[in-house]
Design goal:
Number of helices of chain A: 8
Structural class of chain B: mainly alpha
Number of strands of chain A: 4
Largest interface: A-B, 9 and 10 residues
Structural class of chain A: alpha+beta
Oligomer: heterodimer
Radius of gyration of chain B: 20 Å
Distance between the termini of chain A: 40 Å
Amino acid sequence: MTVQENLLLGAYNVTDPATITASLERVYALFPRIAGRRKQMAGTLSGGEQQMVAIGRALMAAPKLLLLDEPSLGLAPNLVELIFETIAEIRKLGCAIMLVEQNASMALEVADFGYVLETGNVTLAGPAAELKARRDVIEAYLG
Amino acid sequence: MVPLRNWTPGSSPGMTIERERSEARRRGPLMSALNEFLQHVANGLVLGFLYALVGIGLSMVYGILRMINFAHGEILMVGAFLALPVSALGAPAWLVLLAGIAGSTLMGLVVQWAIYRPLLKSPEVTLLVASLGVSLLLQNVVLMLTSPQPKRPAPAPFLDQPFRLGEIVLRNVDIAIVVVAVAAMLATHLFLKHTRHGRALRALAQDMSAARMMGVRVPFMVMICFLIGSALAGVAGVLIGYKYGHLTPLSGFLPGLKGFVAAVIGGIGSFPGAVVGGIILGLLETFLVGYLPDALAQYRDGYVFLVLILVLLVRPSGLFGKPETVKV
């Protein structure tokens, strides 16, 4: 399926065409790189672009809460930067985000609140700014 | 009346191979060879569109449920049988067509709701065997409710009129088949490409769990899928009834199987594949029957299944299918 079809699928349960068009425009504004590829088959995009399509697709439903599971995994460093910039943008749009990330340093840059999980148990919790300050402890946990 | 034993579903009443060839010999070798070729192309295309109609429904169901619905031919037959009384009442052909579509769609929905839906979580083999059971069930229920004697739809004189394209002779019913089949396939294509449910159907076939995460409800989509497939089968059923003038409870069996071969040739699960596969199969069958000596030509159905075996040996994923790579 093409990029556009994937995005439209994200809005499957939205019935108002005006809302869908608005969401589509918002996603293309957030990810200009895929805007130029909207008629391309999504499987032919690079890993980073596919990730953008996936996130964009999730945004199409105008969610109140976005769950992101390791969005930067396997991406080139410049794309990792881009993904986190986008997460910051989405946060500015007013959408609540639950981000699960190994990349603790970058995650804490964009987050308001953080939890550190160790083998299923929450070992640390607190405002991101505080956790950032305790970087040495976090490095110890996450290596 | 042709005895049921000797009747082959591909034969067209009134147009024997011998008669074609003797007429052709009168006209001179090269022109008549060309005309014979073009006649076979025309016949093959008509047959091919019928196979395509049947194959599309099979492919779509496989794409989503990963099951081969062996009862598809019977759904075709039920639609044709339910259209018979409408035809007997003197209704115009298009109304008979609508009745057939309604009948087969209803039958398809009932079968998927009563038998396939409850088995969705079962292994794929279970669905396959269940569809074989449904096939036998429908054949015999219709047999018990009617009789083994072939039924004729009420003659539609307009459809029986010959239609000439240069030297090629068809009947109006053949043109109707092409027109109706193309229209039906176009409508299905537009639905799949441009509506949200069509998109959801395609997404479901590609990646069921991802589609479900988008909020696509599988039971509803399965119903839509069967609806489309059964409706197309109903179209094929009524058209077959008008073309061959014969309907028995076993009439759906061979079209169903041949539609399956068409779907496999094109790549099972693929909508364009079923269309292309159907046309290829129709042309192939017609050419084999047309050019082989009569003693070999009578095995026409055998050749269709020979093609199936060859395709499965050489390229099982078909023309449009993706070859499955097994990760080790």
